[in-house]
Amino acid sequence: MADNSDEDCMDAFMDKFKTEKYDNAFNEENWEEEFERIPMFMSEAPPDEFDSEKYPELATLQAILHDEDRTPQAEDLKNEGNSYFKEKNYEKAIVSYSAALSVKSGDGDFNAVIYSNRAAAQFYLGNMRSALKDAMAAKKLKPDHLKALIRGAQCCIELRYFAEGIKWCDMALKLHPTDKKLLELRAAADKHKRAADRDARKAKAKEKNYVARRKLCSDKGIKLLQSTQPQRGSDTDEKEEDEGSSRGLSELRLDGLSSQEVTGAQVFINQEDGAIYWPVLFLYPEHQQSDFISAFCENHCFSDHLAVMFGEELPPWDAEQKYRPPNLQVCPLKGIYISVLRNTVILTVSFPFFVKAGTPSFIVLVKDSPFCKQYLSTSKVQRLKV
């Protein structure tokens, strides 16, 4: 139940309300005319030209509708984009900056700032080409805009346009000669450019060497096999050479592995005598062992190397000590039998020679051993007298 004192206060307020006038109230004599001046209650449209003092509410409303400064303008949109940028919400920052640019304020310096800010957002999203485009637009509007110049140089370096990056830095350093960031970018661009130029020279020399090696191999009847292993029974199962291959010899693969990856060795041509030197792999399937020769000259004999590998000291895995040079036979992986007792030279035999992974590979067997007989009977090798 309400207290009697509350009711007494309300009665006193109502009595006072009836006797006192309300400030700024309508005039009792012409309240209808004043009421008609309020835009919300007008019964008909106001005249095209009206007295703003007589119609203050209407003048205020018209100013709100037509004053461009009161709509979301470039400055507000730029600030909005900056807020998103600080939050690392770069996608929304780009939207705000783009909206600010669409206002077309006509202020070149102001638009240069927005372009530069949008370039920064694009940069952090990894959109380097878009970032570079915005940096260029900012530079065009304001050639001395430091942030735009820095961003343009950064984009060029990220895109590996090192020469262009150096131009950006040089141009910027004329305007800002002591800027630390520009000096760092200039040094980085120059370093990357020199490394790229060096790599390009190496690649050109490698390609030239590859062409020479391939021609020399072709002249010597050497067949270079592709690395890709076709499915068993496919039409390309017996394909021996990819004449259209543009890959270097050292890039060819054997069972997913190349000797260059393992040892760093690769085919090379001796510039003095023009001889080819190969990384050669000897395999001993009977004992699951192997030997590797990094530079086997095409004019060397098998017996020369086998005499070194199985000379005075035999390998520990040869418990029966049967791997003596006179007892050994060699068979290329392709399956053609070679005897090393006649001083066979590795690449001057009369049959086509097949090379995978840039590494000639040979099976070494003990002549007339049970394993050798079994291997030769199951491997379908072709015996060749040399």
UniProtKB/TrEMBL annotation:
Coiled-coil spans in chain: none
Region annotation (Disordered) ranges: 227-250
UniProt KW Repeat keyword: yes
Pfam families according to UniProt: Wheel (PF18972)
Domain Cns1/TTC4 wheel: 274-331
Annotated Gene Ontology cellular component terms: cytosol; nucleus
UniProt keyword Transmembrane helix, yes or no: no
BP term (GO), one: protein folding
SMART domains xrefs: TPR
Swiss-Prot/TrEMBL TPR repeat ranges: 74-107
GO MF term set: Hsp70 protein binding; Hsp90 protein binding
Xref: Gene3D superfamilies: Tetratricopeptide repeat domain
Keyword list, A-Z: Repeat, TPR repeat
InterPro entries referenced in this protein's UniProt entry, alphabetically: Csn1/TTC4_wheel, TPR-like_helical_dom_sf, TPR_rpt
Family: Belongs to the TTC4 family.
Protein name: Tetratricopeptide repeat domain 4
